[in-house]
Amino acid sequence: MFQTRGEKVFNVINVSFMLLLMVIMLYPLYYVVIAAFSDPLAVSTGEVTILPKGFAMDSFHRVATMDRIWTAYGNTVFYSVIGTVISLTLTVLGAYPLSKRKLPGRKLITFFVLVTLWFNAGIMPTYLNFQQLGLLDTRLGILLCFAIDTFLVILMRTFFENVPDSMEESAKMDGANDWTILSRIYLPLSGPAIATITMYYFVGRWNAFFWSMMLLKDQDKVPLQVLLKKLIVEVSYNVNEAVDMSASAMTEQTIVYATIVIAVIPMLVLYPFIQRFFVKGIMVGAIKG
């Protein structure tokens, strides 16, 4: 297809900008990986920038033998898997009735749902609410904490609205109820949307640390991200307090990088298998029928 000079210039600028943006976004992760495998002294002195310096696995060995590291890792897996199942279930159960145009008060309910996109109670009221419900320092509190993402409910609702009404009417003529229609018609047709929403919830659960840090006091219940935050704070404190960079501080710095690498491995493994559903799930759910 023939392109004008202006279109060619735009494509060059656009591609260059996107490549620059990609480098800016990927470099921090790349640096963490090469720093985790590099010599601790080279990392601490700033010699590691583009390529790794030396090769050392001591940091990963220290992480593997660290107290509570695997307990925290197991907690993260538990919160992510079970929490995603709970979030996905609540999202589907909320989106399905909202997709019905004959639902009494549908617009008003949708309005109250949408309000939560712009307004929230704040940190202290939310914390006091969990306290009064007896959910402080409990796994149930973490699983129920912000279990529903309003945007994903709206996305799922819009996807359900695109299912032809004729299919539901035919099922009802055969005696199917709403549970049967949801499980046998809507959910099988919503594979891309469900895969997309599942990945969003799983990533959000995996990376969540703020409310876990606020609600959990028992160290046997904290997820990996809270432990990682503690390591980063301790390393920053040790580095700032030390007159000379000690070998211990150098090792702690690379331990943080090794922990980050271990923490992001599940995301890197899962994403390629679900990435193909992302565009389809978002685009189909965004088309109003």
From TrEMBL:
Keyword Iron (UniProt): no
Organism name: Cohnella ginsengisoli
Membrane topology: Multi-pass membrane protein
Cellular localization per UniProt: Cell membrane
GO terms of biological process kind: transmembrane transport
Name used for this protein in its record: Carbohydrate ABC transporter permease
Keyword Cytoplasm: no
Family: Belongs to the binding-protein-dependent transport system permease family.
Keywords, sorted A to Z: Cell membrane, Membrane, Transmembrane, Transmembrane helix, Transport
